[in-house]
Amino acid sequence: MKYLYFCRKLELRMNSKELKQGGFIGFKTVKELRSNPYEIPQSMGVYAVLYTDDIHPVFVERGVGGFFKGKDPNVSVSELETNWVENTDIVYIGKAGGMSSKATLQSRLIQYLKFGMGKNIGHWGGRYIWQLANADELVICWKPTDDEPREVEAKMIAQFKAEHQGQRPFANLTD
Q1: What pLDDT is stored for residue 5 in this prediction?
Q2: Cα–Cα distance for residue pair 153/53, rounded to 1 Å
Q3: Interior CA angle at 141 toward 81 and 15, to 5°?
Q4: Which residues of the chain have pLDDT under 70?
């Protein structure tokens, strides 16, 4: 029982090393995944987008995200600066599949990558990452799960907020 509790705690930790220890896999750059997205599992789960540079990010006025239903995905640089969370690798936590969705990690992340290529894809969540100057160098990892992905995602965001004075990950605009 103690081991299971320990594994659950690791699953919820909020940096790339601890994500690896908690069973997250992949750890591929956006650029790498664009050239081979088919290594992403076709199962439900959760994923995280990581900013691994040691320097403060550079934000651009016009990102590469697509205009879905005519809505501009870009926000002001000052809003991006306000939402930036220091002292963490995690910039976005997402989910794929579950009781209300047939999506898989592969299908959801392919949508996300296409949105970041300017396509009109309905992946509005996490859009702030596409206004980072080096978005192609962001790292994406994932974890297939038998648990409801929405619940795992919610726990991860809650843990992140607990560790970062109530702030959500940079590109998570809701809990």
Answers
A1: 35
A2: 24
A3: 55
A4: 1-14
